[in-house]
Design brief:
The protein has a single domain, classed as Up-down Bundle (Four Helix Bundle (Hemerythrin (Met), subunit A)). The chain contains 5 helices and no strands. The relative contact order is 0.16. The mean pLDDT is about 90.
Length: about 130
């Protein structure tokens, strides 16, 4: 991996997270808004684990392509400080992409707003300070 590739992927992640925060700032007046937040979360999460995979590969830390393994590797390497928070994100992303129930969507929305966004922000700040050669 080159620094350039990581920087490109990281810029995509930052933009996706910014769009997620933008959606979270909109009051939930109907299910369409909640659905939009969830979709932006899914996209941000995908970019998150793929960015982490690039970083782990660059650092020579063996990973496979599965998101769970990448997240565990990032936690073991000290890149992710709260491994359980990211495992919950993975579970939520899996739930939203495979089934849809309105009550479950509301619970996931609440976790995105009250936990996931903060964990993602912390990671992005950490990655921004990471030195990639």
């Amino acid at each position: 991996m080159t620094n350039e590739r990581f920087q490109e992927r990281f810029a995509e992640l930052q933009k996706a997270f910014s769009r997620l925060e933008e959606a979270l700032a909109v009051p939930v007046t109907d299910a369409v808004i909640m659905d939009g937040v969830i979709q932006r979360f899914e996209f941000t999460f995908e970019l998150t684990w793929k960015t982490l995979k690039l970083l782990l590969d660059h650092k020579g830390l063996a990973t496979v392509a599965a998101p769970r393994d990448v997240l565990q590797g990032a936690f073991a390497a000290g890149i992710v400080s709260d491994g359980e928070a990211f495992m919950q994100m993975l579970r939520d992303r899996n739930l939203t992409t495979h089934i849809y129930k309105e009550d479950m969507a509301a619970q996931i929305y609440d976790r995105i707003k009250n936990a996931h966004a903060n964990a993602l922000r912390t990671l992005i700040e950490h990655l921004a300070a990471e030195k990639i050669a």
